[in-house]
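Need a sequence for this fold. Nothing fancy.
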């Protein structure tokens, strides 16, 4: 299986190389390293910042940003991608986080804030450097999306499904952690980019690009990517990922149905005709009943965790309780000895006077509880800003470009809903690189669109 996967990846890369230049290959190489980076490598390089651990991938982020920043200095590109407003929002977030750390923990709080900023802003900076490195042409923008689709839309779903149905093989050979569930026949598969939920959410981003290729450009081979990601979502057993996928379909089809009514209707019908028998076939061997459960222990703990985080944010609404101080285990013990933490059956802690998981599984509440509500609005405002630019762009360009802009806008809106069940950008830097890369690839597409479109959509 690994041989077939390797052959498929090599074949895909060879096809792409025909049109890839040095900068495109550099972007693909860095992304490939991240997509296949195993957590066991983190043990090789570790350091402590006033008691707050920094591990291998954190140092990779820092080194890669410095290297790409130096490269970018000698390769000027115009027009700019519109990072000014984004940098302002993230600068406000970083400043408030530092102040929160100092106010709540002094020097120790400052160290914790710096660690959290490396985890949360390091992936953002790296993705920005990668995207900013590429020329502002529509062909280069298409190659960015092609790299993303190859790694996240093809390779990662294959790895995820394989790790689900052959957990012993992947667990022993590659050291990937798998989480057992009540399902029969498999475990919830993950990937180097994160667990089932994190991996599934990033795959849905790739799904949106493939959907655009099928609907607007009538490139039928991308239908295979849609099917592959659809199957991989089933093996996540993650209701939040399935909801994100459904919301994307609703938002995207609503945006393009006037331009492509017959294609949308035909694709919806084809999806039902293909996925229904495929699901029934898989159901004969694997159980997906967890998608229908609503009152299980996981849902109950998530509800308790959300209440605990909300109460903590109300107690300190301006600066929060301190980055990495309210939920310290996921930035300390979890980084240095994740297997021991995962083995704990309770996996709970006390936040204030409330029971909670190690983190609230809600990006908005985690930001509010630790950084304060102003910082939460600044950080999440970046995604709102990019969504707004994509949504405006889709109204001013031709049908094909409008479809792509609609795909970006629709999946970012679905991602915003997903953040109510995931704290990925604050706790999973490896997967977050691809999340930010996708968002910034949207800005690159906008900058490479015709000049009249860029002017019409300027904020």
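Here you go.
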């Amino acid at each position: 299986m690994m041989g077939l996967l390797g052959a498929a990846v090599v074949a895909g890369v060879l096809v792409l190389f025909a049109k890839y230049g040095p900068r495109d290959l550099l972007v693909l190489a860095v992304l490939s390293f991240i997509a296949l980076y195993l957590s066991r490598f983190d043990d090789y390089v570790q350091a402590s910042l006033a008691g707050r651990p920094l591990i291998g991938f954190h140092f990779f982020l820092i080194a890669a940003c410095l290297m790409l920043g130096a490269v970018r200095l000698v390769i000027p590109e115009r027009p700019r991608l519109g990072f000014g407003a984004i940098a302002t929002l993230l600068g406000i977030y970083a400043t408030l986080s530092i102040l929160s750390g100092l106010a709540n923990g002094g020097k120790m709080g400052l160290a914790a804030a710096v660690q959290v900023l490396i985890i949360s802003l390091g992936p953002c900076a790296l993705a920005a450097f990668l995207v900013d490195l590429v020329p502002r042409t529509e062909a280069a923008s298409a190659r960015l999306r092609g790299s993303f689709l190859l790694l996240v839309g093809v390779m990662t779903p294959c790895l995820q499904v394989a790790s689900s149905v052959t957990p012993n093989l992947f667990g022993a050979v590659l050291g990937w952690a798998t989480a057992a569930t009540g399902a029969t026949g498999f475990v919830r598969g993950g990937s180097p980019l994160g667990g089932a939920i994190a991996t599934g959410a990033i795959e849905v981003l790739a799904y949106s690009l493939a959907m655009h290729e099928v609907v607007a450009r009538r490139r039928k081979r991308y239908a295979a990517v849609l099917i592959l990601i659809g199957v991989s979502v089933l093996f996540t057993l993650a209701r939040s990922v399935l909801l994100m996928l459904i919301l994307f379909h609703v938002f995207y089809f609503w945006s393009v149905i006037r331009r492509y009514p017959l294609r949308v209707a035909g694709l919806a019908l084809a999806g039902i005709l293909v996925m229904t028998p495929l699901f029934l076939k898989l159901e004969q061997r694997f159980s997906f009943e967890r998608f229908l459960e609503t009152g299980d222990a996981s849902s109950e703990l998530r509800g308790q965790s959300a209440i605990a985080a909300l109460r903590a944010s109300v107690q300190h609404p301006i600066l929060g309780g301190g980055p990495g101080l309210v939920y310290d285990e996921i930035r300390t013990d979890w980084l240095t000895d994740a297997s021991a933490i995962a083995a704990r059956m309770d996996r709970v802690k006390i936040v204030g006077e409330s029971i909670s998981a190690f983190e609230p599984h809600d990006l908005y509440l985690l930001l509010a509880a630790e950084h304060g509500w102003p910082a939460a609005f600044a950080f999440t405002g970046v995604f709102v800003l990019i969504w707004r630019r994509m949504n405006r762009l889709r109204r001013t360009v031709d049908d094909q470009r409008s479809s792509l802009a609609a795909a970006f806008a629709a999946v970012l809106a679905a991602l915003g809903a997903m953040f109510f069940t995931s704290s990925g950008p604050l706790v999973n830097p490896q997967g977050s690189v691809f999340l930010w890369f996708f968002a910034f690839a949207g800005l690159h597409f906008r900058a490479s669109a015709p000049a009249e479109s860029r002017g019409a959509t300027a904020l």
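For context: The beta strands are 47-49, 52-54, 348-351, 354-357.
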